[in-house]
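Justification of computing resources. Each target in the renewal requires a structure prediction run like the one illustrated here; the chain below, 160 residues long, is used simply to show the kind of job we budget for.
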Amino acid sequence: MAESLYIPNTVSKAEKYEALLPQIEGLIMGEPDVVANLSNIAAALRQAMGFFWVGFYIVKQEELVLGPFQGPIACTRIRKGKGVCGTAWSEGKTQLVPDVDAFPGHIACSSDSKSEIVVPGFKNGEVAIVLDVDSDQLADFDETDQEYLEQLMRSIEKFL
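Resulting structure tokens:
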């Protein structure tokens, strides 16, 4: 298991992800505990990418329930179809939101969040978890984030 991350500071966003994802694989390889893995992934993403908030919501019955995260306190439960996370769950696709205040029904867990990306993860063909990443800057996420975070979610799905 890796003791620390090495992410060069003077490279593009894509290059940061290219350096980070194999290190995350090393963190979770051989560890069967889901909570431990999700905790380390949230910490690694926040540390390496400088995200304002990063965490997971886990589908439990008819709600998304807060899982491991890094950042300010967060909403504990979200209904299907509500807010960005609930929409990602109900539609089963990534939500890339440049301005959360313009998103219909946005749930403001923190007034400091300005933009957001939420990536669903699947188990047995159904959404089982969502990765939620917030920024305190408008339009902070793009197709590069979407590509690499979706790739990361495919790795996470292997241990769900």
